TrEMBL record:
This is SusC/RagA family TonB-linked outer membrane protein. Belongs to the TonB-dependent receptor family. It comes from Pedobacter alpinus. It comes from the Bacteria. It is found in: Cell outer membrane.
Length: 1003
């Protein structure tokens, strides 16, 4: 019996040994077209054994006979194959095409990327959260072709956003659709709470939004609880901000030399510098290295029948100009209940509170202040500026300290949605949502007493202390609120017939009501000094017997009702048709013009699905051609009821004991006023190639806005006519490329460049008479045949070197040697205002960006660059003549004698010709910026299990580290927020470099 048992045991061990012995496996790996794949990772599951395919797609590996082989290749679906005693295993990998199957959020629904016929770019929330910006839109800079973003450096600043140029003289801002709610700003959003952002660029993609979508649409989807379990995620980063580039102004010694030369040119007496021995760097004194932090906590759970997500965020940012600060608190709650598979109810609530303290000094003040003046004697006594600028330029540090923390500014946001969704008759889905957006703003401010000033002695004047006893304290209050109520009701039919015909139809209606109001007031106390404490900063602290307060207020109200429908059809994944129609009614316009109908059609052809393509074209995995046409309205930036006459207060008359105010028309009203109409066509192609490692998307577009709402300056009329007149076009091309690959088992990388070109042109405006729109005091001009808001002035040709030199060129009657010489553009031999021309646009012609990422084992690295080209910046900060101000370093090369300079005019502020708007004051706005460098490390998950963690990632990051540009300001990103008067640099707030360390935890 024992012998039988022993024999049985030996047989069992022999079977186990035979089953587990190693075998050598050989084979070949190909794709669906039977092309060999090089570098495919072949490994044994749950082991460290592995190899790769060679140049012919062949591999060889020794594995346990009962093991499982895992075949992995970038862009293809991973396959697992059991060995089961086999010695030869050939594998055909299928392209994963995950990018094509990605669901993209569009208006009132979603669609697979492969089925899109419009131009839409999608950015994941994970990519957005890697940048340490308070605004999620700022994180899109350089990532989306055709998207212009001009950031501001001040704490909490909102970026200026343009999609495919500027197509209106009123407003060029896109709308934001956050979880279905239409909004104008999204400053309240926590960027760590975003699932994805879609940028809808062409009219066919935005037509479903009607009159709201004329300037483009940015759709934002916030996060929801994932499937399966409860998760906790915490992200925290802290950093410092530092100014990289300062404006190069002269020091005290150079100031004295230049001012002496200027006085000599004026035949004026020399200035007495006896008491002015300082060498003050005012820029350095008002600037600082400033901290910032971002903190985010998300808790989510999903039980199948219900899901809950709670997000908390806290962000702080101090300004690189002292005393400025901003902080924001966020909370978002999302709850969804699914009683059955066909019915769900949900609610989404976001609350935010922001608080900011503005800096109390302008950058221009620091640039203008003479460096020869000392700063202060003690904490309550400051030195005033020299007499040549004392009345116009204050001591920057005195201004900074006097007005520090003298205002309370808080904003509150409450935004909520309640929705329900019901699936009926298998293929129909009914959805209704009710949305509210409530915003409240409030500020209180205080004007304190001035410091004692020391006027240093100059010449016969003695040094003296001065305190202005005429200054009295005052307070001000401002309150504002806006309300928006929106409801959307849709029914969707989604059906696939015979596995080839996929049809999705949508019908619905929407209503939108917006209202807002504000009140403001200030009062000055002439008898008592108001204490410098926020508890007293209310208007009623001042007795009514004081002078009458300054009061203001206003309000708006707009309603909109819309009906819309859309059909998406795909045949055999090859032929695509998308069509939409929308009818809008809006209360801004006269009853006969309130309704309009808009629509779009898009066609697509997936040529890579055709048989001839598959059999003849190698290396291209997916290729789609697309074309679209769309028309929609634009009512953004329009005031309400402009079709009705308006009045303005003019003169005041006294009749006996009564005072009467007279009114007069404010403008000439057009009863036929209507919205602007945007029409556009878009052609493009997109695809994947080289085993999905290369992706590309190219678009060509032509967009025209007709019936521009314009203030017409009529001949012999003192009042403007507000009417629809003029057309603006934007034509361009966009290219987005991407390459991702894997080297070995541990190293992956991706390269994603993008490029876009846009040509803006005012096709017509005021063609029947000489008519143009001007901005920034005439510096910018908008006329037919030119780009919108271009710089308008003289072109510098050099400097008049001598009287003899002036005899050979055109001059003004009062021109002198040392003055700027200008081009005689009309060739009449003299310089007049008629010689002014288009000097260039503040809007860039070219946008480009490049994004690189690498990962090796647990390390990851990110590098981002971004730039623009083709625009100009107006250095308006250099044009001041109200007083003698400090000189920028370019004035060290000013004309003194013939041949000394052919660029910089003579130092003489009394010569007005040198201050005409000209190319002398323009700088190229081209730049390339190293936007982001980031290095991260993710800890091994096996090491974290014992700690109850699923992921820990730490990172260090640098942003805006270096900018290559010829612009001399703090940043080449001059503001283009003003459409008719953009591009001026008056000391634009610096864009700081940001150095950050951060931590991401997941439980």
């Amino acid at each position: 019996m024992k012998r039988k048992a022993l024999l049985l045991l030996l047989c069992l061990f022999s079977f186990i040994y035979v089953s587990a012995q190693d075998v050598r496996i050989t084979g070949k790996v190909t794709d669906a077209r039977n092309e060999t794949l090089i570098g495919v990772s072949v490994s044994v599951k749950n082991s460290t054994i592995g190899t790769q395919t060679d140049v012919n797609g062949n591999y060889a590996i020794t594995v346990p006979s009962n093991g499982t082989l895992v075949f992995t290749y970038l862009g293809f679906t991973t396959q697992e194959i059991s060995v089961s005693g086999k010695t030869s295993i050939n594998v055909q990998l299928m392209s994963s095409n995950q990018a094509l199957d990605q669901v993209v959020v569009i208006g009132y629904g979603s669609q697979r990327k492969r089925d899109l016929t419009g131009s839409i770019t999608s950015i994941s929330g994970e990519e957005i959260s890697k940048s340490p910006n308070l605004s999620p839109i700022a994180s899109l800079q350089g990532k989306v072709a055709g998207l212009t973003i001009v950031n501001g450096g001040s704490p909490g600043a909102s970026p200026v956003v343009r999609i495919r140029g500027v197509n209106s003289t009123n407003s060029a801002n896109p709308i934001y659709v956050v979880d279905g709610i239409i909004q104008n700003t999204i400053d309240y959003l926590n960027q760590n709470d975003i699932e994805s952002i879609e940028v809808l660029k062409d009219p066919s993609s935005t037509a479903i939004f009607g009159v709201q979508g004329g300037n483009g649409v940015i759709v934002i989807t916030t996060k929801k609880a994932g499937e399966g379990k409860t998760t906790i995620a915490f992200q925290s980063s802290a950093g410092i901000q530092k100014i990289v580039d300062k404006i190069d102004v002269v020091n005290a010694a150079d100031f004295k030399r230049l001012y002496n030369a200027q006085l000599a040119n004026l035949n004026a007496a020399p200035f007495d510098y006896t008491n002015y021995t300082a060498d003050t760097d005012w820029q350095d004194l008002i600037m600082q290295t400033a901290p910032m932090s971002n903190n985010n906590l998300t808790v989510s759970t999903n039980s199948g029948k219900s899901s809950t997500l709670i997000n908390l965020g806290y962000n702080t940012q101090d300004g690189v100009v002292k005393n400025g600060s901003y902080d924001r608190y966020n909370v978002r709650f999302n709850q969804e209940i699914r009683p059955t598979d066909n019915f769900k109810l949900g609610a989404n609530f976001t609350g935010s509170r922001t608080s900011f303290n503005p800096t109390a000094v302008s950058l221009s003040n620091a640039l203008w202040a003479a460096p020869i003046a000392p700063v202060q004697l003690d904490e309550n006594t400051y030195y005033s500026m020299p007499s040549f600028q004392r009345a116009q330029v204050g001591n920057p540090i005195a201004n900074l300290n006097r007005n520090d923390r003298t205002s309370v500014n808080k904003n509150y946001f409450a935004i909520g949605t309640v929705y329900g969704e019901l699936k009926v008759l298998k293929d129909f889905k009914i959805r209704s949502s009710f949305n509210a957006d409530m915003r409240f703003t409030g500020s209180r401010g205080y004007s304190p007493l001035p410091f004692t000033l020391i006027n240093l002695g100059e010449g016969l004047a003695q040094t003296e202390s001065f305190f202005d006893r005429n200054v009295r304290t005052s307070v001000n209050q401002n309150q504002g609120e806006s309300r928006s109520y929106q409801q959307d009701h849709t029914i969707t039919y989604d059906k696939t017939f015979k596995e080839k015909h996929k049809v999705t139809t949508l019908a619905g209606f929407s209503s939108l009501y917006r209202a807002g109001q504000n009140v403001s007031g200030s009062r000055r106390d002439t008898t008592l000094n108001i204490p410098n404490h926020p508890d007293f900063w209310y208007i009623d602290i001042v007795n009514n017997s004081n002078p009458a307060p300054s009061l203001g207020g206003g309000g708006t109200e707009t309603s909109q009702l819309s009906y819309f429908g859309r059909v998406n059809y795909a045949f055999d994944n090859k032929y695509l048709v998308n069509a939409s129609v929308r009818r809008d009614g809006i209360s801004k316009f006269a009853p006969q013009n309130r309704w309009g109908t808009f629509g779009s059609v898009g066609l697509g052809w997936v040529i890579s699905e055709e048989g001839f393509f598959k059999s003849n074209i190698k290396g291209i995995d997916f290729l789609k051609f697309r074309g679209s046409w769309g028309t929609l309205g634009n009512a953004q930036g329009f005031a309400e009821n402009l079709y009705l006459p308006g009045v303005s207060i003019t003169d005041v008359g006294v009749f006996g004991d009564n005072v009467f105010t007279s009114v007069s028309p404010a403008y000439i009203a057009d009863p036929n006023l209507r919205w602007e109409v945007v029409r556009g066509i878009d052609f493009g192609f997109e695809g994947l190639a080289l085993n999905s490692r290369l992706n590309f998307d190219v678009a060509i577009y032509n967009r025209t806005t007709k019936d521009i709402l314009t203030n017409v300056i009529q001949p012999s009329e003192s009042l403007n006519l507000r009417t629809n007149m003029g057309n603006i076009s934007n034509k361009g091309i966009e290219v987005a490329l991407g390459w991702k690959d894997k080297v070995g088992n541990d190293f992956t990388y991706s390269v994603n460049p993008n490029f876009s070109y846009n040509k803006n042109k005012v096709e017509s405006i005021g063609n029947n008479f000489n008519f143009g729109l001007f901005g920034n005091g005439g510096v910018n001009r908008t006329v037919s045949g030119e780009s919108i808001g271009h710089f308008f002035g003289f072109r510098q040709t050099g400097i008049y070197q001598s009287t003899a030199d002036m005899d050979n060129v055109a001059t003004f009657p009062n021109s002198l040697p040392g003055d700027i010489s200008y081009e005689d553009t009309n060739g009449d031999g003299v310089l007049t205002q008629d010689d002014r021309i288009n000097l260039g646009s503040p809007l860039p012609d070219f946008l480009y960006g490049i994004n690189l990422s690498f990962s090796y084992k647990n390390f990851d690295f990110l590098a981002e660059g971004q730039g623009v080209a083709g625009n100009f910046i107006y250095t308006q900060r250099r044009t001041q003549r109200f007083a003698v101000v400090n000189y920028e370093s370019n004035r060290l090369n000013a004309y003194t004698t013939p041949g000394s300079s052919n660029i910089e005019p003579i130092l003489d502020s009394t010569r007005p010709n040198n201050y005409f708007m000209s190319s002398y004051f323009l700088e190229p706005g081209d730049y390339f910026r190293l936007r982001t460098l980031q290095l991260g490390y993710t800890f091994n998950k096996k090491q974290l299990t014992a700690l109850g963690l699923s992921n820990i990632r730490v990172f260090v990051s640098g942003q805006n580290l270096k900018t290559w540009t010829k612009a001399t300001g703090y940043t080449p990103e001059a503001s283009v927020g003003s459409i008719l008067g953009g591009g001026a640099d008056n000391g634009v707030y610096p864009i700081p470099a940001i150095y950050t360390v951060g931590l991401n935890l997941n439980f």
